[in-house]
Amino acid sequence: MWGSTTDAAAYFSRWDGFEFTDPTRVTPMGMEIFTASWAGPDIAAFGDTIYVVCKENPEDMAPAYCIHSYDGGATFSEPVVVDGMLGDNISRFPSVAVNEEGQPIVAFMRLDSDFGNARYVVASSDDFGNTFNMDVLASDFSGGDVCDCCPVSITADNNYVATLYRDNLDNLRNSWAGISANGGDMFMNGIQIDQTDWMINACPSTGPDGVIIGDSLYSVFMSAATGEERIYFSASSLISLTDQPDIRLSWEILELDIENYPRIANFGKATAIVWKEVELNTNIILEFTNNVENRFSEDKYYVIPIDLEPHEPINADVSVSSTDVHVVWQDNYSDMVMYRKGSYIEPDALNEQIGNDRIKIYPNPANEIINISSDVIITSCSVSDLNNRIVLVEDAADTKYITLPLNGLNSGIYLLELTDSNGNNYFKKVIIN
Length: 433
Prior knowledge:
- The chain is built from no helices and 33 strands.
- The chain is an all-beta fold.
- Among the domains are: 1-137, 6 Propeller (Neuraminidase), CATH 2.120.10; 352-432, Immunoglobulin-like.
- The strands form 8 sheets. Strands 12, 13, 14, 15 and 16 form a 5-stranded antiparallel beta sheet that branches. Strands 17, 18, 19, 20 and 21 form a 5-stranded antiparallel beta sheet that branches.
- The chain is globular and about 65 Å long.
């Protein structure tokens, strides 16, 4: 999904197994939205349910919207107002995440009518994006305002929700995260995820990004506190609400000029980070680890190959599936959105992953049901196809034994993912006849 500055609209394309489909306009004709490359529309998905959030222009008068699809992007709904309780306030920069039930949670900036008192708030939905509840405050933990032209990101896992933003405390512009432990109903605590103490009397127009894995928040951000624009990685405890020392990710990349716009994504503990960097040419850099608890190697990074010459990548985004890392970026020279995929686990090796000796499934190949036997307590169970689409979710009800109906799934290879009571993930390859 991307924003087009030509007609101020959002567009969507989907990989069909062979190629990307022709772009579909998500926003209706006649609606113009904010489409800056650093803070345009946002997208999140849960199986075949997709949510797109955007801000209509002019931003001092128009609402922020959520548009949903329940059929994998074949059709999209009419826009639904997210910020309906604003009064004479102003909204900016909506961002969306999806909780464990497939419900959208939207963060956006809220300002007074004179563009003062900038803060980030969160509005959640209980009916899959058809209506939204009153927003709740998710920032205001440093004593300052939020940086009023730096975009937000939001991430959710189980009952935890984190709203990540750049703060402004008398021009001290560290990144923070507002933390909710009750699904986004209230944000009672905040964590300073950025310890670099960047002082700047200007708005950097770039914000942090993060993922929640278990009881930890892993985040990335740009800071120029040292005089150089560099990317940092942070790990924070959601239980103790403490942050470990930041890790600078770019020690070994030589002749750098600037780095910016970092994004992070995960599948289980496998985690990838991408960002834009400028040296002699502009490149997209990726760091990857199979286990984010081990952090990132200071000397291991990848320059994403770009076939176009010349090229001018502006920003990038990343997604991680059970076997692959997917990277997209905007190229300003060609006016195209580009995509590359890299594999980190071969599908045939899925059954060899650590922990699989604790999980037994039978029969495999299967027809109508799969029996699952484990020596650990299973709390959740899902089945995905090889395009990483969730096709089946089962409430495991904290048990060691599950009989999983396959509900008429087509023949093919699928990935079974189980989560135990300690937050560990287990994967099994399943063949359905």
